[in-house]
Every structure is written in C-alpha cells, then in structure tokens.
Amino acid sequence: MKQAFITMLEMQDRMNQKVHPDWIAQQFDWYRAIWIECGELVEHYGYKWWKKQTPDMDQVKLEAIDIWHFGMSALFADGKTLEDIAELMESQLIGYEAVDHDVREATELLAQHSLATKGFSVRLFWDLLSATGMTFDDLYQQYVGKNVLNFFRQDNGYKDGSYIKQWQGREDNEHLVEILAELDSQQPTYSDEVYQSLQQRYSAAKNAI
After folding, report:
1. Strand pairing category for 166-167 and 170-171
2. For the residues 170-184, what does the mean pLDDT come to?
3. Is domain 1-134 annotated with CATH 3.40.50.1820?
4. Residue of 148, 141, 135, 112 whose CA lies nearest to 39
5. Looking at residues 180-201, what average pLDDT do you find?
6. DSSP SS3 for 191
7. Where do you find CATH 1.10.4010.10 in the chain?
C-alpha cells in the first residue's frame, strides 16, 4: 500500500506542477475543491426525496477519484517528502475498518471535516470509498488512469483547443475504461502502458478522419 501511495503522490505532484511549478508554496485551497466535489458526488447519487432518482454510480465513483486528487494535494507541505506523506497515509489505515455509512452520509462527513479543518481525512475518505463499493485496487487503477488521461490531454493540445475529445463517436473517458479493463494495474509499467494505449487509439482515430 505504501508504494502505491508513493506512486500516486508522485503522479499528483507532476500534474500539479503543470498548473504551477511551485504549487506547494502557493498553498492553494484544496479543501474548497474537496467539499465542492463532495456536493457534485451527492448530486450524482441523488438526494431529492420529492422526485424519482436513480444513483449514477459510475459518476459517483469518478467524483470520488476527483476528491482523492485534491485530498492528496492537501497533504503536501514544504519539508515533507513523498515517503513522509505516504507513511502518514498508511499509518491512518493500518488496522482501520471503514465505518458503515451510506454514500450521502460518508460524503457529508468528509465535507464537514474538510470545511472545519481546511484539510483532508484519509480515514473519512476510506469510509466514502467503502460506501461506493470501491476497493483500494479500484482506487489505484482508476486514479492512475484518470491522471494519465489528464497528462495525455495536455500533451495533445487540450490548452490550445486542438485536442479531439470524441474519438470515433465516443469520449476519451469511454476509451480509457476499456483500456483499464485490458491492463494489469500491478505491473510497474502500468501508467506507461495506459498512455501508450491511449496514444495508439487517438492516432488511429485522427488518421481515420
């Protein structure tokens, strides 16, 4: 688990550097992004008792992954190494059993903590992860996949508007889901393989235009 945390922290650091090279010193308000994403998650899950709603669990899980992006970012601080942060994260989960909340309650508790502390609770996130039915392997696989896709978009013209998000009638997110299902997330080259698979599909789609 610790090595997986280090890998994800490294990837998050690289992504944040694309926004600002010295992003840690900027002390961005990660907590605000966390609680707003929590609200979006509940929107996808449904909360309106006055109308029929069916939880969109695929979108709920994607929102949980987005919260994880911001949550990890909130744990960085000047003077802390990636190993320091990973050890802190792991120490909070050793022997910890997720509390049995429903999705809305788990999300609200995480949002409340974020607002009260302007920080991020790994344990409360674990409760949310459990409530959505996701495992640690699911978290790792989907986090790496989304992170790689974000890099891929940036490398292929996302900023200047030249990136094509629809490939052969489907969004890049849909292609990513298929790619993740085909690859072994335990391989050390997993993130590279995800990127290469995206590139192959994207190139083929552009050549077909």
Report:
1. antiparallel
2. 87
3. no
4. 112
5. 89
6. helix
7. 1-134
pTM: 0.83
What is residue 161's three-state secondary structure? Answer: coil
Q: Assess contact for 144 and 191: CB atoms under 8 A.
A: yes
Residue 76 CA to residue 173 CA, distance in Å, equals 28
CA distances from 106 to 6, 33, 38, 208 (A): 25, 17, 10, 45
Contacts of residue 23, Cβ cutoff 8 Å, sequence gap at least 6: 16, 17
CA distance 89 to 19: 24
From CA 135, how far away is CA 141, in angstroms rounded? 10
Count of C-beta atoms within a 10 Å radius of residue 81: 10
The residue behind tokens 């900027």 is 26
Contact predicate 75/89, CB 8 Å: yes
